[in-house]
């Protein structure tokens, strides 16, 4: 499909591959929980399975190569002797008593040159491939779908004439590529770096695994006790810090609203009061459409600028006269220190959520 659309595919296969196996090991009576071992070939993980075998092995090794590789998919079985060699290479004194299943998984790191060509949109594995390091692949694909889904739905309501300078739905649909491709590129850099440290057999990554990691291990419990640090790390790995501030949809009104999420930021959750008992903000925003959040003393926007997909909420525990507008995927796209009806109306027209679009594409 990419070839037919003339969309380039930039990247390369990894010289390392992932090995998976379900197996029983001798002398594992005292072994419990997930375990990780470092060796010359890379890291080796053992996870309690308890289904068709006691353990799931996940390891990396130099790729066996071959033609017709289906990257990211389960490949051929791995010989018993190869698996035993992987265990021995990390210094694990255990023998494979039974091998229930195994597979090699060839990998690549690649990114499409663009995520949109006319009416064709690429998402998930069609748009990007990465190593499984840090578990970014599925999250990135889900975010592609969430980002694109609401834009396709709203594009039918975009003004094709007067509003937004006559740009209509094209600005909204083009923003899928301009938002998601840079964000995905940053994720590929992260996964590539981690996979290099985890699996490469070069001198530097081998030293990191064999020397630096054991010396740094005593600091891990101390770091895990720092809840804010751990929470921020989880938010980063979970892609909750993805920002679309460079997008044409991210608009900063005047006067600027200080002390609030910036346009392009994902709106963080909070306990808020909208009348009645306190509620979680994300729960209030779980419904479909755009949400305009007014600070306590903000003037309400005129009904004439609000389309049927727009919900207005007043946060009574947030002092100030400003507002922020949150799009359906949870990212802030417009904010202003006052209720700028014209600015809000223009932004709503830009994304296809205004009250009276002048025309439909």
TrEMBL record:
Q: Has keyword Flavoprotein?
A: yes
Question: Which stretches make up the FAD-binding domain?
Answer: 84-185
* Record keyword Flavoprotein present: yes
Q: Which domain of life is it from?
A: Bacteria
Which positions, given as ranges, span the membrane? none
Which terms does the record give in the GO molecular function aspect? FAD binding; oxidoreductase activity, acting on paired donors, with incorporation or reduction of molecular oxygen, NAD(P)H as one donor, and incorporation of one atom of oxygen
Q: Which UniProt keywords apply?
A: FAD, Flavoprotein
Q: Which cofactor does it need?
A: FAD
SUPFAM superfamilies per record: FAD/NAD(P)-binding domain (SSF51905)
Write the protein's name. Answer: FAD-binding domain-containing protein
